[in-house]
Design a protein that fits this description.
2 domains, mainly alpha, 16 helices
């Protein structure tokens, strides 16, 4: 091994990039891509880079995957071949962008971008987990208490209420209905839910039409849909930027960039590609498909008019990255109060269902 390679090896050996567990986290992958990008900047051979990363990976599964990728590189396969083989670990976006990097000669920038993107994704996931942990714990505790009261406590009061001819309030009647329903039909209900889940999963895997419908529906979920759109718009605009910067013909650049995992958005980009082939401007074609937002379309139009389309697409990608970050922060800020409100409603409903008839019973007893 050369002195330069040895220096990189020693540097990464003493950095705890990878976890000891078999699970490969988003952070693991982000740090891997940062390593690859850094070593590509020093013009090390790609095979040696992957071998160095494999040697220094503390995660057993990641080490095996990198060794497999290195093996296929030795056989003459492209780097993207190895990442496609392990797409379930690295994700569709990583595979598609690495394929793009090979075609455009911009692998170094692609890996740097992926590392930055995955780091933000990892931080956002951690924020969401922290925001969810305590409210969900409390909510589950309340639901557990709710079920115990409905199943065991409420029936004991029922005969007493009825013997005193106390009219049960609507809250208590709803609780009793729930208790009766889950006692008589609980297993059947759970079986139906399980069967529906299995059927939906099967159709999602085997029916492109059903999958496209689900993808389109997800895009209309408040906030979540906006985050997903921004993610794919970022991928699309950054992909176009890299290719046009590398002097890739427009038709080919659009054909490569349209390959995203959301089928609903992919169909829009495919239609835009056909319009461009028929002589329409990219900004017009995307606007006809209601793809991207007004700011991005204005930037693309300005780039077409000035001859700086690649630079404008880079600005678009940063614009959508900021949108994704802002919307994610907004979602996180809404999670805790929403769960707190749900807990409050459950507690109020439980209190009204149990204590209102008890107060009526007390009033009846004193009245008697």
């Amino acid at each position: 091994m050369s002195e330069t390679q040895g220096t990189f090896k020693n540097t990464f050996e003493h950095t705890a990039f990878f976890s000891l567990q078999g699970h490969i986290s988003t952070k693991d992958i982000s740090m891997l891509f940062l390593q690859i990008s850094t070593m590509l900047q020093s013009h090390l051979p790609l095979l040696h880079i992957i071998q160095i990363c494999a040697d220094n990976a503390k995660n057993t599964r990641l080490k095996e995957i990198l060794q497999d990728i290195a093996y296929h590189l030795q056989l003459g396969q492209n780097l993207s071949f190895g990442f496609k083989k392990h797409k379930n670990v690295f994700g569709d976006m990583s595979y598609q962008m690495i394929t793009l990097g090979e075609k455009s000669g911009e692998l170094k920038e692609i890996f740097s971008m992926l590392s930055s993107h995955l780091t933000k994704e990892y931080k956002n996931k951690n924020k969401i987990k922290r925001a969810l942990f305590y409210p969900i714990l409390v909510l589950l505790s309340i639901m557990g208490a709710f079920m115990v009261l409905v199943a065991f406590v409420l029936p004991q009061f029922l005969e007493m209420f009825l013997s005193m001819h106390i009219e049960l309030p609507i809250y208590t009647r709803i609780l009793l209905f729930m208790q009766t329903f889950f006692t008589d039909f609980g297993l059947i209900f759970m079986g139906i839910l399980l069967g529906a889940g299995i059927l939906a999963q099967y159709m999602y895997k085997n029916s492109l039409h059903f999958k496209a419908k689900i993808h389109a529906y997800i895009l209309h979920i408040p906030l979540v849909g906006a985050i997903i759109k921004a993610h794919f718009y970022y991928q699309y605009s950054f992909s176009l930027y890299i290719q046009l910067k590398s002097a890739t013909p427009m038709d080919l650049a659009l054909a490569l960039s349209k390959d995203i995992s959301n089928l609903a958005l992919k169909a829009k980009f495919e239609s835009a590609l056909e319009s461009v082939k028929n002589g329409k401007a990219l900004s017009v074609s995307l606007k006809e498909q209601n793809a991207l937002d007004d700011i991005a379309l204005a930037l693309i139009n300005a780039g077409e008019q000035s001859g700086n389309l690649a630079q404008m697409l880079e600005v678009c990608s940063k614009h959508f990255e900021e949108i994704a970050t802002d919307k994610t922060d907004m979602l996180i800020s809404l999670i805790e109060p929403s769960l707190s409100l749900t807990m409050g409603i459950l507690l109020l409903f439980l209190a009204l269902g149990i204590f209102v008839p008890m107060w009526d019973m007390s009033a009846y007893a004193f009245g008697a």
